[in-house]
Specification:
Elements lengths: L6 H22 L11 E4 L15 E8 L10 E8 L1 H10 L6 H21 L8 H19 L5 H9 L12
Parallel strand pairs: 1-3
Antiparallel strand pairs: 2-3
C-alpha cells in the first residue's frame, strides 16, 4: 500500500504548482493566456491510473491525445498529465531527516515538470525521444529549472537545488 498526500499536502502541491507556473511563465516569457495552449493537469498518487505510477521518480509526465472526429480530419489536441508519486516524495523528505522540506521539494518538482511541458510544446524537447537522448533532455531541464528558481531566496530551496546539482543527486538522500 502506498503513502498518499493528506489534504494539507495536496493544497500545498496546488500552491507550489501555481507558483512554479508563474515563475516558468516569467522565465519563458509566456503570458498568462499562453498557458491555455500548454494543456496540463496534475494528479496525486491516489488518483493515478496504473500506468501512471512509476518507481524511481518523484513525478512522471504522461502525454494524452484527444481526437475530435470532424469531416475535415482536423481537430483534437494533446495534453500532459503530471503524475506526482506521493510515496516517493514523502519518503525522500522522511529519509532526509528534516534536511529536505516538502514545500521546496514540491516547488522544484513542479518547476521541473512545467519546464518539460513548455519545452515539448515549443518543440525544444522531444517527448518521444529515444531513450539514449532522454538523459540529455533531463540534464537540460535540470539546468533550466535551477536557473528558473535562482531568484527565490529560500535556504530550504537552496538545499534542494544543491541536491539536483552536479555535486549531489537527490537519490543520494534515499539510500
Amino acid at each position: 500500500m502506498g503513502r498518499y498526500f493528506d489534504t494539507s499536502q495536496i493544497s500545498l502541491a496546488g500552491r507550489t504548482f501555481a507558483q512554479a507556473e508563474t515563475m516558468a511563465g516569467q522565465y519563458f516569457r509566456l503570458r498568462p493566456a499562453d498557458w491555455k495552449g500548454h494543456r496540463y493537469d496534475v494528479k496525486t498518487l491516489a488518483f493515478l491510473e496504473k500506468h501512471e505510477v512509476r518507481e524511481g521518480a518523484f513525478a512522471h509526465l504522461c502525454r494524452y491525445q484527444y481526437r475530435k472526429e470532424r469531416d475535415d480530419g482536423e481537430g483534437g489536441f494533446h495534453f500532459y498529465r503530471i503524475c506526482l508519486q506521493d510515496n516517493r516524495i514523502l519518503d525522500a523528505v522522511e529519509r532526509a531527516h528534516s534536511f529536505i522540506r516538502l514545500a521546496p521539494l514540491l516547488l522544484y518538482i513542479a518547476a521541473h515538470e512545467l519546464v518539460h511541458v513548455v519545452r515539448f510544446e515549443q518543440g525544444a524537447g522531444n517527448f518521444d525521444a529515444p531513450e539514449d537522448e532522454k538523459s540529455g533532455e533531463e540534464q537540460q531541464v535540470h539546468r533550466i529549472t535551477r536557473d528558473l528558481l535562482k531568484p527565490v531566496t529560500d535556504p530550504d530551496l537552496g538545499l534542494v537545488l544543491d541536491c539536483f546539482s552536479n555535486r549531489y543527486q537527490i537519490g543520494d538522500l534515499m539510500q
